[in-house]
Amino acid sequence: MQEQYISARIPTPVQASNHQPENFLVTHADIKRFIKRYSSLLKWSTAIGILLGAAYAWSAVPLYTAHAQIIIDPSLPKSLTDARDNIFGLDNAQVESQIQVIRSESIAQAVVKKLKLNEDPAFSGVSSSILTYPFRLLNGAPEPDALARERLALARYKNGLEVRRVGLSYSIDIFYSAPHPDLAAKLANATADAYIADQINARGLAARQGGLWLEERIDHLRKEMNAAALQAQEFRAKRDYRISPRAGAEGLPAAPREPVETRQNTLEELDSTAQTFRRIYESYLSAYTESVQKQSYPISNARVITEASAPTTKSYPRTKLILLFGGLMGALAGFGIAFCRAQLDRSVAGARQVRDELGLECLAMIPSFVDLRPPSPVTRLSAGLALAQRPSDLVRLLQRGAKSIVGRVNAWFMGSATTEEAAQETSRADLLSVVTLPFSIFSHAMKRLRTAIAIAARGRQLRSIAVTSTLPGEGKSTIAANLAALFAASGVRTLLIDGDMRRASLSRAFAPDAEQGLQEVLNGECALKDCIVRVDGSDLDLLPLSIAGLTNSPDAAPTVELAEPLLAEMQKSYDFIIFELPPLSASLDGLAVSSLVDGTIVVAEWGRTPLPLLSESIHLLRNAGANIAGVVINKIDTSTPDNGDLAGNYFSYSYAPANVERLR
User: Fold this and answer.
1) Are 644 and 351 in contact (CB under 8 A)?
2) CA–CA gap between residue 434 and residue 449 (Å, rounded)
């Protein structure tokens, strides 16, 4: 009756080897899975970036920026001031030239000289601290001279200065950053004052130079004007200005005309020349008078419209921006490291990977025992209704909780002996988690594995399976024990055999005091029925490994000649037999048994089992003639439900209360 239930069709190695992998593009689910898988790395890298940014912001010298503003009045020629149709002013090049003047070394020298920055240790680099003086003596560094101090002060002054134009206006902003607010305001105002003074000095110097040129020009024009006036007077003195009679009048002869080539300037021409020189002389004399006035009272075309005041907040470092930048850089570094790890990682990551690269089916994806997510309200209600209908389960859970509390208390007062007992009890509870916690996510996944084995009843009968793994610690003992408990709970006569002679995890958890077991049965020292142990709290039978047998012959692996008649004898009394075999990377003792059973399940740990090692294990099993039923991916992260499996949101799905009893 049960044989038809547990019959299954096992893919042959030829069918598996002919599997062609499919090509998939990167989807949103892949990106989400990538982020979920490396979320811990991303969180830590982001936190480290923020901490580094905070350390930099805390250790950096704070700077305060003061702001002063000046405006340049465009100077217009007097001849153009009355023109209303055209407006002349400063172009962009002239304004930019004034900005370069503010940044020039002459302004910097004026500020350094006025504020005596070459004597300030913060600018000249000379510290009067008692702690720094011995280091200068030990290093043999000479004291900087006055010129070196001045050059260093100029360089540091320019480092804190920033000048920029306000839009397209004639306003210029002067910013200065210093470690102290008062010093920043003082330097910004000093820069603006130095620029105004430089403009006044430049205008005064231009007026003086123009005055000297005008003096020379006026002296020359004076001589030219006097010479023209003297020539006009001499012309008047040499000429007779009486009116001569007309030619032919009253019989007088006409006056003879002078030849053209000997003709001289007329009196009108000489007077006009003299008047012209006089007017030029008077205009230059007026310009000279204006130049003398400018020299005595020069006026600048720039003025300060906003004086700098001491800032109340620091401008550097910007703590929030630095923290944000540090977190962003840390996240980017974490993404880079995670991407490199993902490219170099060849561990098992999902069902699709198993199908594509190994040609095997992924029977189930089993989550870890520890589920940090709180159960849904439907799950809590379902569990409560189930416990109310099954008082024995409630009593068993209460006993387990009481034993756990007692074990912890004893471990606190009595030491390591009870600690080992508590650890053994915890391991025993994990191996029977489908019985003690039937509505946990782990139990649901194990039931899915049982269904995956049972629904393929189309060809061969599956009455015996072997559970193995590639590496130790991948959870094959847990999978084998819980799978056997599920079959036993469904009414199938199930026998669990501990075949891992290196660890014997099942025997240490369920039958630690067994004096005879599998080794003794194989050697013919005892009968099979005398070595069977009933597992407490379940309908499961166990064929353990005795500690004495392991001590006497730890490497005695069951051979085909011994295991085959024993398997035939077991199948007379049990409907389903599960062997737990040692990991293939540690021992090849289980290859003989895997060739005898109807199917072999390979357990791989999610994110830990290297895919090349798993492929090598599959190759060893195929060479041994084992029928590989599929791969079980264990200990997956429940926060990443989409792992290339049809489960999708399976781990967040809860049973309805009406279906609890039926699904049990």
Assistant:
1) yes
2) 12
